[in-house]
Amino acid sequence: MTKAIVGLLALGAVAFAATPVSAAKMMSCNGADLQKVNAMMPGMVEGQNKMTMYKEMAMTSTAMSKGDMKGCAMHLNMAAKAGMAK
What we know:
With 86 residues, this protein is mainly alpha-helical. It has helices at 2-18, 21-24, 31-40, 48-65, 69-84. The chain has a domain at 26-84. Helix 3 (31-40) packs parallel to helix 5 and helix 4 packs antiparallel against helix 5. 15% of the residues are buried. The model is unreliable at 13-24 (pLDDT under 50).
């Protein structure tokens, strides 16, 4: 029994160590992260990045309304990247 527990803990440690650093920076689909990204939009210069950001935020809302939290987080991250691009 204890060998199994130790084995599972070791497996978890290996999986955690193998997780890419970029995964830790991903935004989740919660109110605080949505507000951060929405706050970026008004100050942006009109252009391709702003249009991309609005499209991604629309897809974020659609995914959230369908209960697709993984898709919501993916589109929210893409919107944030577009907001930070120069």
